[in-house]
Every structure is written in C-alpha cells, then in structure tokens.
Design goal:
By secondary structure, the protein is an alpha+beta fold. Helix content is 31%, strand content 17%. A hairpin with a 2-residue loop joins strand 7 and strand 8.
Length: 479
C-alpha cells in the first residue's frame, strides 16, 4: 500500500447496513485491517424499517421445535416460488449457509419472536416453517450487529466512519481497485485498499434511476437513504448489471400525507389472502382487474403491473368497514372509526354518500364505477362472479357512505443490481471480474436471490450470509 498508515487498509466496506456490518466484522475478526464507511449518521440502513424476515433450513431453533427441514427442501421451495428465475449459484450458497447465519444470531442473543419459525403468507408461502424474525423486526437484527460491531472494534483492527460518503472507487489503468475517495469532515480523503466491498443497498428512493433501470413508475416505501450510490459507484468502475426483467412491485401502503411519491408501509391496507375481501379493486377507468380473493399475492401483483399507472382503488361500503376489526381489519392497526377519520383528510382516502360522488373525489371514471359496482352486486346476488371467478362474495356494496382508498404498486426493494459471480466479485459488462471489487446486499438486486418473486427471507438472509462469507474470504486473501 502506498498511503500513510492511517489511510491504508486491507478492506474497505462501503455501507454499514445489513450486509456491510457483518462483512466488516468477519473480515476484521479474520485478521484484516478494515474500514467501514457509512454516508448516514446512523448505522443499520434498511434494518430501521425492515420486517427483518430471515429464512434458513436446519437451524437449532427448528430442531428444538421438532421441525424437520434441509437446505435441499429450502432450495426446492425457492425454485418453485421464483419459478426458476433466481440465480442458481447464489441460492445454492445461501441455502447451505443460511442456518449458520441464524444460529450465529441465536448465539448472540437474538430476540426471536416467540412464534417463529413459521410459515408466512404475505407472499407465496414455503411448505415448511422456516421464516424467523425478531420481536422488534429489523431492529432486533441491528441490536445484535451493533453489539458485535462494538466488540470487534474493541478487539480487532476495525474502524467505522459515519457521515462519510464514498465519492469514487479508485482504479489503476488496468481497472484493478486501488482504494476509494471518501468525503469526510469537509474534504476528500484518499484511502488505499486492495479490496473494496460495495454494500450500499438499493435505489428505491431515487426516482430517476428507478425509472431508468426498472422502467416502471415509482411510489416508494423504501428507506430514504436507498438512493443507488453503490450502483453509480459500481457502474463508474465498469460494473455490469443483473436482474433485468425481474422487478415485481408489492401492494402498497397508504399514500404519505406529506411526501408525494411515497407510501407509508406501516399503515398499509391488509390485502393478502389471510383476510377474505369485502371490497373490490378498480383501476382509474373504474373497472375491476383481478379476482380480489385470488390466493396468490404474486399473481395479483403481476396483474397490477398491467394496469394504468399501476394504481388502483379499493371500493367498499360502511357495512364492510364496520366489520373490519381484529384479523379482518382493512388497514393495519386501525379500527373502523380510525379509518373513517382518515377519509377526506389524507391524500388518497375518500368517502361520499354515493358512488358517483366517490368517483369524482377519487378521480375515477364515474359511469364505469357505477356500472362495475352494479355488476358486482349482481354477482353477489347470483353467487357467481362471471367476470373474474371470485369465490368470496359476502355482501353487496350498497350501504353508504362509500369509501375508496388509493393503492399503488409500491417499491420496498429493488430487483436490478450490480452483477457478481459466485465469489461475490463484481463483474464488468463482458462478465469478467473487476479485480478487487465486490458487492453484497441489496446492491446486487433482489432478483439475484428472489428472481421475479418475493421469497420469504431471501433478502435479509442473503445480505447477512453473503456479507459474513465475503468478509471471511477477504481476510484469508490478506493473510
């Protein structure tokens, strides 16, 4: 290394989040001199808003509960749910190391939610109970990582910088990584390092980049620091991208009352198969576009990508809202009177005494909406939905006031990312390794491990697992 001792490291990890923290810890504990840099004032990244779902087969916790499982069964489920669209090399690595990750958390006092592992039905479910999460969701993971980071800083050569964005990955004429440039305390600081790891997360809060790569409108519920820094850094260093065509939105949260283009995932509508629907879904033209009781949330989300602006409204009446309590609640954590109070006070939530008035408030085609509600009510009376084959037809939409809640295809995570090989080395557009450059976490794209699907635990678990594995390997390289 060419720089002075305080600017020369074996490994620089960019991003102190779900993947970057365990990568830095493992590298330092393996004997490497490590610099972990974070642009934000806080560490943890998306763990601050994530549900923190993990998935692993063959853990101690499964064994304690008499659950038989194996990496091969986990792989079969990933292939089935993703319909073979995930990266086979990466999911093989994940499935055979995920239990070690969950056990590693367990050994360090991870606060498991009492009901885990369990089968989660928010998206296509596994056949076996292998999803785990903490009592405090993603923050339970961060609690373990923060404690382990502090212990490692005290005992090993690991330095953490916050409020320190990386502005450049420095390379020689042949493209080999030489280090990074960090903007810190008002000036650029050049750091020498033969290995640089990009672990900066996704780009779900960067509209221009999202629309360029995913070619879809963005309504974001992603972490606000997920602005694609790692994508820009990697591409400037010659990186190729992976995951094109794997983007899948999720059903959205309520529109944010203060920030256009964002949605609040925390107070989303409950639109999964766990709650039989009393409402109908209509597009801006006022027409239904899917069977609302379709059991596959993935199929509903794929249908959502085909409607105008990927925007829809749930339409229901006061009788339906009145029974929306407990497990039947329409809005997570909100009783009927709380939902009524939101109407006409928050963007995208409307109430009116007639369907025509409701359509005018929501910006939906009024004539079509009236006709759609009438046809749906006829289907309820007949007990047959000839348009979409909906089976759950509990009651007509007939008792005012009537309600409309706007929903979007929202983005929690991004599916495209930096292309890597099975050693986590970043590849250029020709598929060759960029010497010294690596990437883990959401910056490689959710499509790498989920394919064109949402597969339970296959975002957080790969970030933690690949981060730990890469840190160990980089320490061995420098030994």
């Amino acid at each position: 290394m060419n720089g002075p001792a305080d600017s020369a490291y074996d490994v620089v990890v960019i991003g102190a989040g779900t993947a970057g923290i365990p990568c830095a810890i493992s590298a330092a504990q393996g004997g490497a001199r490590v610099l972990l840099v974070e642009k934000d004032s806080l560490i943890g990244g998306t763990l601050h808003i994530s549900g923190g779902h993990l998935a692993a087969a063959g853990t101690r916790r499964q064994a304690e509960r008499g659950i038989e499982d194996s990496p091969e069964a986990h792989l079969d489920d990933i292939r089935r749910i993703s319909q073979g669209t995930a990266r086979e090399d990466l999911i093989q690595t994940l499935a055979h190391h995920a239990a070690q990750t969950v056990d590693w958390l367990d050994e360090r006092g991870f606060a498991f939610a009492a009901e885990t592992p369990r089968i989660v039905y928010g998206h296509e479910p596994y056949r076996t109970a292998r999803t785990y999460y903490g009592r405090d969701e993603g923050m339970s993971i961060l609690e373990v990582l923060r404690a382990e980071l502090e212990k490692t800083q005290a005992a090993y050569d690991l330095t953490l910088w916050t409020n320190a964005p990386v502005t450049e990955i420095r390379q020689d004429d042949q493209g080999r990584v030489l280090g990074v440039t960090v903007y810190r305390e008002g000036r650029d600081v050049e750091i020498d390092a033969p290995s640089v790891v990009i672990a900066t997360g996704g780009f779900g809060s960067e509209h221009e980049l999202f629309e360029e790569l995913e070619k879809s409108p963005l309504v974001s519920a992603a972490y606000k620091a997920s602005t694609g820094d790692g994508i820009h850094l990697g591409m400037a260093a010659g990186a190729g991208l992976q995951g094109e065509g794997t983007y899948l939105p999720t059903f959205g949260g309520l529109p944010d009352p203060r920030t256009p283009g964002r949605a609040n995932w925390s107070d989303r509508q409950r639109l999964t198969s766990e709650r039989p629907p009393f409402e109908i879904y209509v597009n801006v033209e006022g027409r239904r576009w899917v069977a609302e009781d379709e059991p596959s949330i993935d199929e509903k989300e794929r249908a959502l990508t085909k409607i105008t602006d990927q925007t829809f409204w749930t339409i229901f009446d006061d009788a339906a809202l009145s029974q929306s309590t407990g497990a039947m609640e329409m809005v997570v954590g909100a009783e009927p009177d709380q939902v009524r109070a939101m109407m006409n006070n928050r963007p995208g939530l409307h109430s009116a005494d007639s369907i025509a008035e409701l359509a005018a408030l929501a910006g939906i085609d009024a004539a079509n909406l009236e006709a759609t509600v009438a046809r749906y009510n006829e289907a309820v009376a007949k007990g047959v939905d000839e348009e979409f084959g909906r089976k759950h037809l509990p009651a007509p939409i007939a008792q005012g006031p009537f309600y409309a809640i706007r929903n979007h295809a929202i983005t929690l995570v991004t599916f495209m990312g930096l292309d890597i090989d099975d050693s986590f080395a970043v590849r250029d557009e020709a598929g060759a390794q960029i010497p010294g450059l690596y990437a883990v976490g959401e910056v490689i794209g959710a499509g790498a491990t989920c394919g064109n699907s949402f597969c339970s635990g296959m975002l957080v678990t790969p970030a933690l697992t690949f981060g730990r594995l890469l840190g160990e390997r980089l320490a061995q390289q420098g030994a």
